[in-house]
Write a structure and sequence with these properties.
Length: about 350
């Protein structure tokens, strides 16, 4: 602006910018009498461009950002909470209801999940109550029968008149029924009410192996600290060892290895005939007895199922892997868990 005035006036006047109260320029005019200043107002600055292309790009950018924010707040975040709730159920934990927030479809999905979770938990409670009730109800008549068999019945009860061979057979049957009721109780509980404690797993397994003195049980244990339910874990690994001793062949190997900083594996390896590949999945199902792999008395097919349930509670699983003949044959029962599993509610 100043070069233009200089050209038109023939000289360059003194100029001063002004911001307040109005935006403009003060121009000093040459006057023989007194200084004269002329104020020339300037248009206000426009913060928004009137360029149509720029306005269109601004609108598109704003719409994309608003859509991304909507997806994050109303869809992605509620779906992540729903995924965490589903992970708890998948890990074997009781699980907690997912909050019904976010978009309409996400809220409906959360409500359906919560309804399904309620039915699953109610069915699980009924099943556990039924199994525990059956086991408890059977304990009393079994105890009375055992007392009568041993001649220790209450006054007024008649003793069973059986020869020694029949008494031995009846005693074996009563022991078998006692083991079955005990398995029912263990399967109904499966460590659900026990708290998680951080323990050295290698020491826990060494203490368990002391109960198998005289058996050909070898140890290969890494030093690992993990958050576990000690009683439930000992019960699960004890079931695997008992299963290997009864249906497998020596030597047995109990191995503890660290898979990664977040997971461990406890392997029980025997050199027996193993289980056919087509029956591996069936072997860990409740109340399944495989003729070629489970021939003992007093078992109802819950040993491996109990171990699997406890593994799920510990954020892992139970896998049965056959060992090839080139490697010596046998079966590897692999119990793996998370070092910090989700605690059951």
């Amino acid at each position: 602006m100043k070069p233009l005035l200089c050209d038109r006036l023939g000289h360059c006047p003194e100029m001063e910018p002004a911001l307040k109260p109005d935006r403009g320029i003060w121009i000093h005019l040459a006057s023989p009498l007194e200084p004269v200043w002329l104020f020339f107002p300037l248009p206000s600055a426009q913060f928004l461009s009137t360029d149509p292309l720029l306005l269109s790009l601004s609108l598109i950018t704003g719409s994309v950002m608003a859509g991304a924010m909507f997806l994050f707040l109303e869809v992605r975040r509620p779906l992540r909470r729903l995924e965490q709730a589903m992970a708890e159920v998948r890990s074997g934990a009781d699980g907690s209801p997912a909050p019904a927030t976010g978009a309409l479809e996400v809220r409906q999905l959360s409500l359906h999940f919560n309804s399904m979770l309620s039915r699953i938990q109610a069915s699980e409670r009924e099943r556990q109550t039924m199994l525990a009730g059956i086991a408890h109800d059977l304990n009393s008549p079994l105890t009375r029968l055992r007392l009568r068999l041993q001649g220790g019945s209450a006054p007024g009860d008649s003793l069973l008149c059986l020869d020694s061979h029949a008494q031995l057979k009846l005693g074996a049957d009563l022991d078998a029924l006692g083991r079955i009721t005990q398995q029912f109780l263990l399967f109904a509980g499966s460590g659900s009410r026990e708290g998680f404690v951080e323990v050295p797993l290698h020491q826990l397994l060494e203490e368990l192996s002391a109960h198998y003195d005289g058996q050909d049980l070898r140890l290969e244990l890494d030093e690992i600290q993990a958050l576990v339910q000690p009683i439930a874990l000992i019960r699960a690994i004890g079931n695997l060892i008992d299963n290997a001793l009864e249906y497998g062949e020596a030597p047995l190997l109990l191995r503890l290895i660290l898979l990664n900083p977040y997971a461990y594996a406890i392997e029980v390896i025997d050199r027996g005939p193993g289980i056919p590949d087509q029956e591996l999945d069936l072997a860990v199902e409740p109340f399944q007895r495989l003729d070629r792999a489970r021939r003992g008395e007093g078992h109802c097919g819950l040993g491996l199922a109990i171990a699997k349930r406890i593994a799920l509670v510990h954020g892992g699983d139970l896998l049965l892997n056959p060992i090839s003949a080139a490697e010596g044959g046998g079966l590897c029962a692999c119990f793996w868990g998370s070092c910090q599993p989700l605690e059951r509610a």
